[in-house]
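Weekly puzzle thread! Below is a chain. First person to post its structure in token form gets bragging rights.
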Amino acid sequence: MVVVTGPWVGYNLVRFERPVTLSSGLGQTVYSANCRDTYFGPEIGYLSLHCLLSSPKFPPADESVQDQRFRDLATDYARDHKGQVPFVAFARLGRTFGFYAPVDQLRADERDNHRVLSVSAVGLALFYVSVIMSVYALIVLRRRRVSLVPVLAPVATVAVATIVTFGQTRFRAAADVSLASLAAVAVDA
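Winning reply:
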């Protein structure tokens, strides 16, 4: 990993005013997910291009400085609405894992990611089946005293990334590998 990413990280650390490792896009992402549109109403837990496009206009600056400005705005908004943050986090997880507004999320995936709604609906149904099978597999593995860390770590990683950013079906991809492995354990058991 160091050989592959090292040159890029090194280049980024010297070319920007503030430290940047891989990307300077987190600020805009978290800002588009921490605004009125994403804390209240039908888009709760998702992201809002409207919020990003109507954001304050900053004077020209280095990308790393702009990124920090957006992160500061997002943090300020979350602090100002801290009572809503737990519900937003729940909605983000629910959008990613299909237990909050699943049909709305499928429509958002169709609108924003050009996914075919009928195919996405079948995928969601299969996801639910794999979750049921995975729960059974976790019980089986636990009884066998097999460590669950390798299969649960990707799910936890997806959950943390979702809470920090926004909920979206495609974020679940890393967790889907674990679910497929666990479904195989369930079938075997």
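Puzzle host: Confirmed. Bonus trivia for everyone else. DSSP finds ten helices and no strands in the chain.
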